[in-house]
Amino acid sequence: MGQINVLVWNEFRHERVHEAVARIYPRGIHETIATHLRQQPDIRVSTATLDEPEHGLSQQVLAATDVLIWWGHMAHHEVSDAVVDRVHQRVLDGMGLICLHSAHYSKIFRRLMGTTCSLKWREIGEKERIWVIEPGHPIATGLPEYFEIPHTEMYGERFDIPAPDELVLLSWFAGGEVFRSGCCFYRGRGKVFYFRPGHETLPIYHQAEVLQVITNAVRWAAPVAGPTPTFGNVQPLEPIG
Ligand code: ZN
Question: The CATH number of the domain where 11 resides is what?
Answer without folding.
Answer: 3.40.50.880
